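S.,

Sequence below, as promised.
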Amino acid sequence: MPLSAILGLVLALAALAGPAGVTAAPPGGLWLAGQGGGASSAAQAAEQARRQTGGKVLSVQEQGGGWQVKVLTPSGEVRSVFIPAGGR
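The prediction came back faster than expected:
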């Protein structure tokens, strides 16, 4: 089987394996797919990430059509959450 076919299969399975609304995550990260309609500011992105994870927001950076929010989870892990740009 060609490598590209294997990679496609792995990505498809990873997308299906996560909870509803969550896309495949990089190691050590959690990428949310805009539950709540996205955010139109960094402050909204931080609040959305805090609500969705129950954690403490460490940083927010604008990135490719949204914001990357680093959160310290209640279990002590640092996670990267992607909140897409969007209005409310």
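The beta strands are 56-63, 66-72, 78-84.

Coffee later?
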